Amino acid sequence: MTNLQQCAPGPASTVQFFRLWSDRVDGLDRHLSANKGARAAVIVVLIAYPIARIAIPAILHGIVPDVVRTVLHLI
Prior knowledge:
Helix content: over 70%
Number of helices: 4
Number of domains: 1
Structural class: mainly alpha
Number of strands: 0
Radius of gyration: 23 Å
Order of helices and strands: HHHH
Low-confidence stretches: none
Distance between the termini: 64 Å
Oligomer: single chain
Strand content: under 5%
Largest sheet: none
Shape: elongated
């Protein structure tokens, strides 16, 4: 048996992976109350909003040439 055959995932390893993943998600659900989940959602929004409003337009402004911007503005 070659090394490649030993490392190739089979159906049993895929099932084991999904069972492990399911157990971890279930454990997280047991330890995460609704209050903590709401706080986590608010924190994610507070972090994502400035990125969406400031960083992404700044990156696009640097990437898109002025000619394209002028043509799109005229349309």
